[in-house]
Fold this sequence. Notes:
The chain is of the alpha/beta class. The chain has a single domain (34-298), classed as Glycoside hydrolase/deacetylase (TIM Barrel, Alpha-Beta Barrel). It has eleven helices and ten strands. The strands form three sheets. The chain has a four-stranded mixed β-sheet with strand order 5-6-8-7. Strands 9-1-10 form a three-stranded parallel β-sheet. Strands 2-3-4 form a three-stranded parallel β-sheet. Strand 7 and strand 8 form a beta hairpin. It binds zinc ion (ZN). It comes from Teichococcus rhizosphaerae. This is Chitooligosaccharide deacetylase. Belongs to the polysaccharide deacetylase family.
Amino acid sequence: MAASDLALKAGLDALPLLPANRAPLAPEFPWPAGHGAAMFLSFDVDAESAWTAKDPARYGELVTMSFGGYEARVGTPKLLEMLRQLGLKATFFITGWSVEAHPAMCEAILRDGHEIGHHGFHHLMPQPGDPMLAEEVDRGLEVLKRRLGVVPKGYRAPSGEFCEALRVLLKQRGLLYTSSFRDDVRPYRHLLADGTPGLVELPVTASYDDWLLGLSQRYSRHTIQPREAVLSMWKDELDEIRDWGAMVTTVLHPQCSGRPMRLRLLREFLQYAQGCGDVWIATGEQIAAHFTDCERKAG
Ligand SMILES: [Zn+2]
C-alpha cells in the first residue's frame, strides 16, 4: 500500500463510529399563537470580504471588488426599502470588515430596527485548528460594539463551516444562537463535547441560499437562475415546511438579492409568505428567544 493510502486508512480507522453532531433531536415546540410555521428572514452582508478572504491580493482587482461594493452602494439600501414597504424585520449577519469599510450602510440597517448578527471579521471559513479562529470572533465582536453599539446575540459561520472549538468559543463569548448547520428543519440546542449545552441552532435551508442560484461574475460556477425556477422552488420548500410545522431560514446576500430582478422575485416570495397567513416571519433573535422560552417551560 502506498504511503498516502496508509495515511488515509489510518485516518478512517480512527474515526469515531458516532454522529459528528451529537445534539439531541429538535423538540417540537409550537410556534407563537396563530402560526403554524416560521421563516427566519436573514441576510449575510459580506461586501468585498466575500472576495478577499481567500486571497487579499484581490482587493486590487477593482471589478471583482465591485460585486461586493454593490452591496453598500445599491443592494442593501434597496432591500431595506423593500423591507420597510412590507413591514418586515430581518437579521443581517455582517462581517467586521464590512462594518469598518461601510459604516453608513450598517447604520442604516440598525436605524431601520433590524437585528445585526456576527459573521466573522474577514469572512474566514472557520476550520478545525485554524489559529485565526478566536481573532475572527473577537475582532468581529469588538467592531460591532465600537462602531454600532451592538452586542450580537446571533452568529452565522462565514462560508458555512464549523468546529468544536468555535462552538465552545461562541458560548464563552455569550452568543445565544448560531445559524450555520444544515441538519434540521427546527431549532435545536447544541451539545458540546464536554456534555454541557451549547448555543441554539437555527438551521439554514440550502435552497434559500441565493449565492447558489447564480451570481453574474467570473468566479461563479452557477448560471443565474430565472425567476420562475427560483420562485417555484422557494414556494414548494415553504409549503412543505408549513405542512411539517417547521421552519425555513433564508441565506440571502445583498450582492445577489439586491440586484433588480432578484429583489423583484424576493419581494414576490415574501408577499406570498405573508399571504399564507400562518408563517411567522421573524428575526433570529426572536426565534431563539421563543425557543429558550419553550425550553424553560418544558423544564
Ligand atoms: Zn458570508
